[in-house]
Amino acid sequence: MLLKSYIKETFETKRYYLTIKETLMTKKDCLVIAHRGASKYKPENTLLAYDLALKIGVDYLELDVQLTKDQVPVVYHDSDLSKKTDIKGSIQDYTYEEIKNLDVGKWFGEEYRGTKLVNFETVLRLYGNQFNYFLEIKNPTDGIEQIIFNLFEKYRIDLTNHRVVIQSFDQNCLLKVREMDANIPINQLILKKTEEEMPYSLTEISTYAEGLGINQSNVNEQLLSEANRIGLKIYPYTVNDSEKMQQFIDMGVTGIISDCPDLVKSLNLN
Ligand code: G3P
Ligand code: CA
C-alpha cells in the first residue's frame, strides 16, 4: 500500500491510536530505559549489560536487532563491524555460523575478551517476560519484522500493556509492523538536529506511532508542547549526564534512554 494512502486510512480510522494514559507510568513520572543494556558499565548488547540492567531494575531494556545473511536475528548496534570487532563488513555480510563466536567485548576492556555476540532468540529464551523491551529494528532486511514476531510467539512474550515497544529509524519497517499488529506501541526514531531537517512531521508520525525517540539535543519545551498536543510521547536518547536527565524529567518527557539507567532511576525517585 502506498505510504500516503496508508497514513490517510489509519489516521482516519484511528484504529490503533493510543493515549498517553495507557502507558506503564503508574508509579513514576519518567520511564527508565537501559540503552543497549547498562552499557556504560558493561559491553553494549551483551548478556553482561542486560544482566546488570535487570539487577538495576529498569522499566525497559533497549536493544538493537538485525539479521545475519542467513536471516538469524542477533543483537548488535553498529553497521560497521570493524569499529568494535576484528572483522570487516556488516552483520548482513555473514552467516550466523560465521559470526556466532565473534568477540564483542574486547573493545570495551581486556577483561571482557571472549564475550560473544548474542543471538536475539537467546535473549528471549533467557529473560522472557522478566524485561519489558524497547526493541529497535536496525538495518531492516526482508522479513525481519515477521521473524521477530514469530520469536515473540515462540517464547510467549507478553505484547500487552505496552510491555514491548518497537522502534526504528526506518519508517517503512515501522509501517510493516503496524500492518502486522494494530496495537503494539511504535516509536519513530529521529536522528536529525533541526526542525527543518526532520524527515517527518510530528502529525505524520502520530498516525502510525505513539512515540518519538529523538536525539536529546532536539528536545525542548516547544517540541514537548507540540508532542503533548497531539498525544505523542517523547523519549530523548542517549542521556548520560545527570543535569540533563533532571532537566528532561522536569520537562515531562515520557522516558529517558540512557547507558546509565541507575542514574536516571535514582533521580526519578527523588
Ligand atoms: O533507543 C534509541 C537509540 O538507541 C537510537 O540510537 O544509534 O543508539 O541505536 P542508537
Ligand atoms: Ca538503539
TrEMBL record:
Residues 30-268 form the GP-PDE domain. Pfam families: GDPD (PF03009). Gene3D superfamilies: Phosphatidylinositol (PI) phosphodiesterase. It comes from the Bacteria. One of its GO terms (biological process) is lipid metabolic process. GO terms for molecular function: phosphoric diester hydrolase activity. InterPro entries: GP_PDE_dom, PLC-like_Pdiesterase_TIM-brl. This is GP-PDE domain-containing protein. It comes from Allobacillus salarius. The lineage of its organism: Bacteria, Bacillati, Bacillota, Bacilli, Bacillales.
